[in-house]
Write a structure and sequence with these properties.
UCP037465_Znf, elongated, two-stranded antiparallel ribbon, 6 strands, 2 helices, alpha+beta, DUF2180 family protein, about 70 residues
């Protein structure tokens, strides 16, 4: 699988290391961002969050969109 952002930059030799959890495109080690995600489970009428966060991969574009406020 090839990194989508590298293909857009006319670099076709870069292998993707993960798939963006937001848009589903492949991302290489330069364009991928690993972020923490809280894991919640339903407990009664509310939610309980685990002490250890999970991780998820997002591409550079989706990371910029999520963090732009």
């Amino acid at each position: 699988m090839r990194c989508y952002d590298c293909l857009q930059e006319a670099r076709s030799d870069t292998t993707g290391i993960g798939v963006c959890s937001r848009c589903g495109l492949a991302a290489c080690e330069n364009h991928a961002r690993v972020r923490q995600a809280q894991v919640a489970r339903q407990v009664g009428m509310g939610a309980s969050y685990g002490r250890i966060p999970a991780r998820r991969v997002v591409c550079h574009t989706c990371d910029m969109a999520e963090t732009a406020h």
